[in-house]
Specification:
This protein has one helix at residues 4-42. It is an all-alpha fold and 43 residues long.
Length: 43
Amino acid sequence: MQNSQPNDIHPLQQSSHGMGTLMIRFVGLLTVAVVLMTLIWSV
């Protein structure tokens, strides 16, 4: 029964790492989209 406690720690670390990676990708894609729209609008 005590084995369930260490298992609860790992998913929290993985989810926080996954969320950080997701945010970095989202910000990166958003930046690329803004740059492309600016280039298209300036032409």
